[in-house]
Amino acid sequence: MNITLKIWRQKGPNHVGAMETHKMTEVSGDMSFLEMMDVLNGNLIREGKEPFAFDHDCREGICGSCSMFINGEAHGPGRNVTTCQLHMRSFKDGETIHVEPWRSAAFPVIKDLSVDRSSFDRIIQAGGYVSVNTSGETIDANAIPIPKHDADEAFDAATCIGCGACVATCKNSSAMLFVSAKVSQLSLLPQGKPESKQRVIRMVDQMDLEGFGNCTNTGACEVECPKGISITNIARMNRAFLSSNLTSK
Amino acid sequence: MLDSKIPEGPLAEKWNKHKDNIRLVNPANKRDIDIIVVGTGLAGSSAAASLAELGYNVKSLCFQDSPRRAHSIAAQGGINASKNYQNDGDSVYRLFYDTVKGGDYRSREANVHRLAEVSSNIIDQCVAQGVPFAREYGGLLDNRSFGGVQVSRTFYAKGQTGQQLLLGAYSSLSRQISKGKVEMLNRHEMMEVVKVDGKARGIIARNLVTGEIERHSAHAVVLCSGGYGNAFYLSTNAMGSNVSAAWRAHKQGSFFANPCFTQIHPTCIPVSGHYQSKLTLMSESLRNDGRIWVPKSKDDVEAILNGSKLPTDLKEEERDYYLERRYPAFGNLVPRDVASRAAKERCDAGFGVNKTGHAVYLDFASAFVRYGKTEALTRGIQNPSDETIVELGREVIKSKYGNLFDMYKQITDDNPYETPMMIYPAVHYTMGGLWVDYNLMTTVPGLFAAGEANFSDHGANRLGASALMQGLADGYFVLPYTIGDYLADDIRTGKISTETAEFDAAEKKVKDEIQALISNNGDTPVDDFHRRLGLIMWEKCGMARNEKQLKEAIAEIQELRKEFHSNVLVPGSENAFNPELEKATRLADFLELGEAMCLDALTRAESCGGHFREESQTPDGEALRDDENYTFVSAWEYTGTPSEAKLHKEDLVYDNIELKQRSYK
């Protein structure tokens, strides 16, 4: 099939960007979106032009590197998929496809479609862990039974891949879904409970410091999340944040 | 020259005795010692976090935009540990035995036993960190079985065990970053090891965002940079996975062990076109219920390819269930290497079922019926129709493998509930790597290697769910001890200066190499060369190897390397974010490694594990080991040309296990 691409081109964080148009012919429906980008880049290189920079690594939907805003949607059309798992058969012959980077003050563009998401790392560093040393000499793994329901709920929150689709899709550029997923995972497990109050306060403080917006409960993040993380986590975090502020010293 | 430093004494006491006798660095002195850790997968993250907790100053590098994205994240199935929670007779010894046997008797007894010993602690540690493993209704941890063993010792978190374990290690790493004990350098690539007086004393790194070439000094350097399966271009590895850190270390004097030992996984989604960039694994667990087949007659193959027949049109007697035919005892559950070779044999004979000729069917039709009948009985449905049975069976399969079926449909646009899956083997893991002694130190003093980057634990074939175990064992529990023995000599050394002739020379070398690539007047993009290298490796150093083709491959790779350096076109600038340049520097190293892999495969004129030499097979086409002549580790010393590397042999001594020929008939 033939497609027209309008892709964001931006030389660096302090440069002005613009959309650039490219036509592609003989695109196979079996190509992944990133493989189509590979072919385009190969063509550009042969023509002596600069290829488009974009982040990608595992190409099986788990590393969270890929991050394209396609036709106005984070990771493009389709639900529960990352850009690398999106295939060209999702598009029509002759279609014009708009490709942009994640847009958020907290995710500055590095180049073209590649953005800096280290703000997410700093939020985790603020408290997204259990303070246990790695001696291995803890207690036996089965010493504390954890109800299956709690373990499963913690797992569902823990499947977040940190891609940033929630931020990119939110009109406020809020990182609440990302932060609440980690807060929920650790607060649902007995191992994370002792630090739960400080954790939620510190992580939310860091989130604000990074320039992410607030949450107005539109729920767009949940729709676009490639791992289907539920906004129930946000409700849980809000409650924990409030009670922690009221009760912690 | 090769001293593996295996401690004296009975096997089961070696590790504890070694820990008791090893030299330590006192806490005050640790504050004055710097360590660089390259890579943030399971081994790298766990090592960096543990070393920082001990008090060392750690610098951690990853080429990804976050340490959480290292490719350990993609591991699916699980992690082994000899907890014996299932009371099915598991023990440290059994895990040790299974791993040595699974590796086809080409790994080191002492290392594997240590791995089995610390395996239990890994699970305790991960649970303490908040890793949400699968649990039973009673709240205790659940286990599943994996290939090649007779117990249930695999802990898992759905099909995302690697992700959960890596995020656990990443959280420990993040905690140390927040304390200032680890300096994290995202989007940084190690370009060179810097040696001073024969010891590893730092690295040259490239900041991938600015292109700046940086000097970093340390008292020791730890490489946790993963495997080199991308030498084949198409593999289940991530696009960025590369051999460069290990290969640069090799060129600086670290021996490279068993480079030809590659694991080819039998169940991956086949290549669909020339644009293909990577291959996706379908979990080994599917072989519990799927039957693998190709048509018996070439007419039927032809009919399927031209669309006049569907695979479901073929009657039972028109299908060749070749694994069940050749291996009645193990059937579809033969080990990975055997299943892969059998698929290749059928496709080479012209029975491949897709347009590329490289695919076989993995069919769940009989499982639908089998499960459907049981389900009908359970639900008390009298005289169910065939349709009802199949429908009920599909529901059962969906509950077991639903996410894999969805992934398959997403990629291929075929519905595997209606038509058989198409699968083909793909490169998955590399057992070879940097040669290390019992302390995980390479032949360059102060240069260590852990995880998939070293060679030590899996022999010629790795068992499922053992890669995660080894990565975390090395990083959490082995290296933090053993590195102290080396660093005990460095407590009076003081800060290593980067303003020395050695750093000058290393930096200049890196800059010159980059300059040569960037200013090259070629016309062909990097990926074209990578694809061609991959094709040579796959055809001639892949699932089956022979002397003639390996020699051809060496010549072809040398030719390709020459062409690459004269004709590659790298756009953009070296002083900016430039993904094409990253690819080019990595490929330059793959183009040398490929030759070393072929040399190793050529030298090892036996078949063992994933390494199948056509000259060394039984009359009925099975792998034939030659214990008399090849019970050793091939450790290669770089001499300037990969195929002229010097071979050093580390003899493998089996005091506790009797060597046997594997049979699955």
CATH third-tier fold name of the domain at 267-427 in chain B: Flavocytochrome C3, Chain A, domain 1
Might you state the CATH topology name of the largest domain in chain A? Fumarate Reductase Iron-sulfur Protein, Chain B, domain 2
As residue ranges, the low-confidence spans of chain B are: none
Radius of gyration of chain B: 25 Å
**Approximate shape of chain B:** globular
Write the layout of secondary structure elements.
The complex is a heterodimer of chains A (249) and B (665).
Chain A: E1 3-9, E2 18-24, H1 33-46, E3 69-70, E4 73-74, E5 96-100, E6 109-111, E7 114-115, H2 118-125, H3 148-158, H4 165-169, H5 176-188, H6 196-209, H7 220-224, H8 232-247
Parallel strand pairs in A: 1-5
Antiparallel strand pairs in A: 1-2, 3-4, 3-5, 6-7
Helix pairs in contact in A: 2-6, 3-5, 5-6, 5-8, 6-8
Chain B: H1 14-21, H2 27-30, E1 34-38, H3 42-54, E2 57-61, E3 79-80, H4 92-102, H5 109-129, E4 154-155, H6 161-178, E5 182-185, E6 188-196, E7 199-207, E8 213-217, E9 220-223, H7 244-251, E10 256-257, E11 262-268, E12 291-295, H8 298-305, E13 319-320, H9 322-326, H10 336-351, E14 360-363, H11 365-379, H12 386-412, E15 421-430, E16 433-434, E17 447-449, H13 467-487, H14 501-518, H15 526-540, H16 547-567, H17 579-603, H18 627-630, E18 632-637, E19 646-651
Parallel strand pairs in B: 1-2, 1-9, 2-5, 9-17
Antiparallel strand pairs in B: 3-4, 6-7, 7-8, 10-16, 10-18, 11-15, 12-13, 12-14, 14-15, 18-19
Helix pairs in contact in B: 3-6, 3-13, 4-5, 5-13, 11-12, 15-16, 15-17, 16-17
